[in-house]
Amino acid sequence: MGNSTQTASTTAENDHSLFDSSANGGQTRIIHLDVQGMTCASCVGRVERKLRKIPGVDPAVNLPLESARVIVPADITDEQIIETVNNAGYTASLKTEVRDAESEETTNARSGGLGWRIVVALLLGVPIFLISMFPTFQFPHWGWVLALITLPVAVYSAEPFHRAALTNARHFSSTMDTLVSLGVIVAYLYSLAQLFMNPGLTEHVHPMQGGILGMFLSGNHAPLYFDSASMVTLFLLIGRAVEHRTRTRSSEALRTLLSLGARTATLLRTDKRGTTREVQIPVEDLLPGDEFLVRPGEKIATDGTVIAGSSAVDASLLTGESVPVEVSVGDAVTGATLNTSGSLTVRATRVGSETTLAKMGELVAAAQETKAPIARLADRVSAIFVPTILVISLLTLIGWLAVSHDVPRAFNAAVSVLVIACPCALGLATPTALLAGTGRGSQLGILIRNAQVLETTYAVNRIVLDKTGTVTEGTMRVARFGTFDDFTEVTDDNASSKSERSVSILSDAAAVEALSEHPIAHAIARFATENYGAFLGTVENFEGVPGGVRGELVRTRGEGESRRLVLVGTPEYLLQAGVPLTEKQHQMLEQTRSEGLTTVAVARAIGTKDPLPVGLIALADSPKPESAQAIAELHELGLEPTLLTGDAPEVAQAIASSVGINPENVFAGVTPERKSEVIAKLQDEGYRVAMVGDGVNDAPALARADLGMAMGSGTDVAVQASDIVLMRSDMRAIPTSLRLSRATLHTIKSNLFWAFAYNTIAVPVAAAGLLNPMIAGAAMAFSSVFVVLNSMRLTRFER
Q1: Angstrom distances, CA of residue 269 to CA of 246, 281, 352, 707
Q2: Catalytic residue numbers?
Q3: Tell me, which GO biological process terms does this entry list (predicted)?
Q4: Where are the strands (E) in 112-181, listed by range?
Q5: Distance CA 73, CA 25 (A)
Q6: Measured between alpha carbons, how far is 351 from 618 in angstroms, rounded to an integer?
Q7: pLDDT score, position 659
Q8: Average pLDDT over residues 324-340
Q9: How far apart, in whole angstroms, are the C-alpha atoms of residue 102 and residue 108?
Q10: Are 596 and 467 contacting, i.e. CB atoms less than 8 angstroms apart?
Q11: Would you tell me which of 152, 293, 438, 603 could form a disulfide with 567, CB atoms 3.0–4.6 Å apart?
């Protein structure tokens, strides 16, 4: 269903344009925060729990982005929210934008300046490891030397873990950093204590027992753990650095999207003398109504309408559509798209945070900050994870001491439990997949509103497609017109050969239809004007109702005037008006409809005579070239495509058959008001329904459906009522979006499975004394990196 939370963002102006979610009476708003200092899922849980203690506050904290999206009541200030996060032990600040491209310095700062810490740990850790593990490298009193050179690793290199653990302790909480810090400190201090209690412990070379494998797994060597303290630190620092780098890469698509916009605009200014000159200004200085020039090869500075010139516009970077779109006077253009050929003069309609590009960025960023329902289990586990591991580690130590009285082995097992447990993998499982999936979606012109949508895409089993503009081109054109005896196909070549009476019928119908807002009326009026010139006369007593229009066409001739009643509409409309078609005329109309042409009848009367049917006008709205392929792909995904239209049943059946939709799955003659009723009917029959549309009249149905999908060429209202926005009008984007959503959810599930399975298996193995703390630390680092790398596969998702 559509996104029901009505909010206004602190970091963006409150507008009502594309992708906007306007305020609900000013009762709530959204605050976007940067949150520094989070390292694992436990941190996320703690920040959210602290914020939820404030009445009415609903936070969503994102670990990879180190950010939070907080829905707050209007009476709660930004300072209260920031202070709450800071009191939890982290550093919060307001974002200046929902998402901005991070500089290299910012990325390095967020990674905690790990580079030099890794260098120190590597240069000292490798010798420590070799000396500890292999007698060949040992020498008299080597333990005291290791105690000395391990100190910089345990203090300097491991400082990020110690600092975070201390901060947590001050707030009576614990995280992954608590486990690592305890593991490193205890390993170092225990080893140092062993040396002081037994100064001659390493006076001689310690023989290798159990072979190399035995030493690696169980630590069967001198009871010193300097190698564990140093190598655990090294492995975890490397793991965190790789994690930061891959996180940055996974959000690269969003930063690329936001960097697509033009930097400057060529503003056209006219002075008092009427002289127009060009002025280069920053794009941020553009205002609605400004006119600017776009030369070939330049990016269009902002959303606007073409007021002069024609060209082909390449929107591939924004929509994923590879074919340039022809534009001319009156056409809307989107900022950040590339003008490929002719020069254009554009009048700005949306600027700054109101542009399509800015709204796309907001939508993608908001989706990345939401949580899938499946992730709630991970949140609940993370809340008690670290305290549970601390208890298990203590019980492991006590158990081993009670059973074997082997202090080194008991210590080995307890420390291994501390460093092998990995709440990080739990915390990264969902957000990294969302980062990669939504980022890839933005590259393909697919915008997913929130994480809940992902699970819905798996559940839907029926997809309802609005015909006009979705399955078909959405542009009506007159294909045939004329009297019942001259009702033939019309082309550019034979338009002038139509009989005078047929042209007269078309002209009369067009004159009346020109006052209607219906797409059929627009098509008839446009065709008549382009091919046969302006209408003659004026229309009085115009009346438009569902099914048809009527009006009196008044023409002045000399000192007199002539009046002609003209009716245009469906056979049912004419019948209600007292103008029934003959059986032969009705058969001709039905035959035309069965060919997929929307057909209306024309009746007219002169003076006081009764109106009579005089001809037909048939219009074509051809299926898009890719519609049949898209329908076939939807079938392969296990969905049942259904066509929904206000057209006559014969027209709808013909269109459905041509694209591969089962004729039984056609709802024809449906008024805009009844579209949502059709969705509700299907839901009552047990279907989980997806709806695809692009018009204002589709919005209620999009909101009523379990999954609403709006074609990006559609109206703002339809877009706001949807869950997935397709920036391309290509129907193949529909199955692509479903596959991407399902792939993202599958990745989240596999990440969570790995995280749970890893901890479920690794902790008991470590408690059983089967692992060296060093190996445990390496496994812990790998588990986080594995989750991130698994998510990164989504960045290579193909259509």
Answers
A1: 47, 11, 20, 47
A2: 466
A3: copper ion homeostasis
A4: none
A5: 11
A6: 42
A7: 92
A8: 85
A9: 10
A10: no
A11: 603
Domain ranges of the chain: 1-96, 110-250+370-437+743-796, 264-353, 451-473+623-722, 477-620
Amino acid code (one letter) for 665: N
Measured distance between the N- and C-terminal CA atoms of the chain, rounded to whole angstroms: 24
Burial of residue 62, with CB atoms counted within 10 A of its CB: 0-12 exposed, 13-18 middle, 19 or more buried: buried
Segment 103-135, tens digit of pLDDT: 444 445 455 568 899 999 999 989 998 888 788
SS3 assignment, position 620:
strand
Rounded distance, CA 551 to CA 544, Å?
9
**Nearest of 99, 741, 66 to residue 428 by alpha carbon:** 66
761: amino acid identity, one letter = I
Query: Which strand ranges, in their side-by-side order, compose the sheet holding 338-339?
Result: 325-327, 311-314, 338-339
The rounded distance, in Å, linking the Cα atoms of 567 and 35 is 66
Q: How far apart are CA 627 and CA 742, in angstroms?
A: 21
Q: Are 527 and 491 in contact (CB under 8 A)?
A: no
As given in the structure block, the two tokens for residue 188 are 């170092």
The DSSP bridge partners found for residue 603 are: 567, 613
Give, in words, the CATH class of 264-353.
mainly beta
Residue with tokens 């586990």: 381
- What φ, ψ does residue 604 adopt, rounded to 5°? -155, 160
**Token reading at 554:** 């008044």
* Least confident stretch, 242-256, 446-460, 500-514: 242-256
489-498's contacts with Cβ under 8 Å and 24+ in sequence apart are 495/531, 495/532
Choose between 451 and 510: higher pLDDT. Answer: 510
Tell me if the domain spanning 1-96 has CATH number 3.40.190.290.
no
Is the CA virtual torsion 486, 488, 491, 493 positive or negative? negative
Q: For residues 152 and 253, what is the distance between their CA atoms, to the nearest angstrom? A: 39
Distance CA 10, CA 18 (A): 18
Residue (of 114, 146, 151) closest to 129 by Cα position = 146
Question: For 537-561, what is each residue's pLDDT tens digit?
Answer: 788 888 888 788 999 888 877 666 7
Return d(Cα 602, Cα 611) in angstroms, integer.
Answer: 10
Check: CB of residue 228 under 8 Å from CB of residue 774: yes
**17-21, 161-165, 564-568: lowest mean pLDDT where?**
17-21
Q: How confident is the model at residue 101 (pLDDT cuts 50, 70, 90)?
A: very low
17: helix, strand or coil: coil
How far is 236 from 181, CA to CA, in rounded Å?
11
322 pLDDT more than 80: no
Tell me if 594 sits within 8 A of 650, measured CB to CB. Answer: yes
Q: Which pLDDT tens digit goes with each residue over 137-149?
A: 888 888 899 999 9
Average pLDDT, the chain: 81
Backbone φ and ψ for 136, nearest 5 degrees, come out as -55, -35
Alpha carbon separation from 699 to 80, 422, 547, 679, 715 (Å, rounded): 37, 45, 22, 12, 9
Q: Give the CATH number of domain 477-620.
A: 3.40.1110.10
- Alpha-carbon gap, residue 420 to 782, rounded angstroms: 10
Residue 600 CA from chain centroid, whole number: 42
pLDDT > 60? residue 389: yes
φ/ψ of 348, rounded to 5, equals -65, 135
Q: Does residue 207 register a pLDDT over 60?
A: no
pTM tops 0.70: no
